[in-house]
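Give me structure tokens for this 204-residue protein.
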Amino acid sequence: MNEPWIDWARELQFLAQAGLTYSKDPYDLERFQRIREIAAEMVSHQTDIPLSKVTELFCCETGFQTPKLETRAAVFQEGKILLVQENNGLWSLPGGWVDVDQSIRDNTEKEVREEAGLAVMAERIIALQDRNRHNTPAFLNGICKVFVLCQLVGGEFQANLETVASGWFDQDSLPPLCEDKTTAEQIAMCYRAAEDECWQPEFD
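Here you go.
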């Protein structure tokens, strides 16, 4: 998924969607629709994913295409960082897609509450990252990951649909990570930010 053709397919999809959004001429609209189909066909051909599935995931939006937003919370207690265990057994920082009616702060606090059962206060931004530059495998859609340092208020883990457990971990004794969501390098960045009162947010 890191091959150059993926970038070409993404750009074709982006140009086609912009054309379908702003063009008025019916012939141009037909051409842009065909460009969008070609982008999906490229992905399907190279990955063996059924064309219908690629179209559903890759060519489903309308309007000007922008990256999706995802928040990840960095919560510390006695020098250890909070991680939640996914249903697949791997661990990550609590977080997820930003709901359309939530701010970055609200969404960060909500995700910790839902996934770990904890109340936190979002305090400051650690980093804004282009997901595909830091996490694998690469996604077809652009995603901006927002890492937020949070202060623990209280609470305890509650059973939920997204996670099966939560825990506090030292930086040098991390469990197996769900690297499409959280990497050891991203956790190390959160540790550095927590220890530096003058931390300047990193961004791509």
